[in-house]
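Box 3.1 — From sequence to structure: Putative membrane protein, hemolysin-III related
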Amino acid sequence: MNKQSKVQSLGEEIANAISHGIGALLGIAALVLMLIKSNDGYDIFGSLVFGISMILLYTMSCLYHAFKKDTLVKRIFKRFDHISIYVLIGGTFAPLFIIAIDKPLGWIYLVLQWAIISVGIMFKAVKINRFQVMHVILFLGLGWSGLTLAPTLIETYPNVFYLILSGGIFYSVGVFFYATRFFKYSHFVWHIFVLLGTVSHFFAIYLYIL
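Predicted structure (token representation):
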């Protein structure tokens, strides 16, 4: 695909901005609901990390797509948009590591994952348009690293496992549309799959972890 074919139309960008603007509002609602349901400090901390990461990603994505192309502000929000993908991955797993997994193992998982996430964020911050294949591999690898928790989750939180798995499938299918963009509004379709993945993970945490 050449560079020109990657340029999105005004209609596409409006759809992209609206879809993730709605996601930001849903993220705020999700955070409030999780905090209301939280019973202790671990619940509150896990809810805050996950909720804020949702709000951050969808807000940055909405703003990135809302501004006119080839402007400084759009380039700035593009950087934050890409960085916030890493933040959401870490934020999604945080409640699992903090609440659902026995300590200190959960905290070890948390630290290791955020160490890898920090490397990805550093590369995005410095060279946003380079190492694209590496970032896709990191996004998928970090997301599917949750399979290492499968034995524990299947035994203690089977519904959580299936919802987390469903969310991972939604994200992964969405990556196909993000990477190929072989038809108009492919990026918007990617946004819808991201929303579906986040909703699946929210229900896993809200219904069964908190």
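Summary of the box: The first helix runs from residue 3 to 6.
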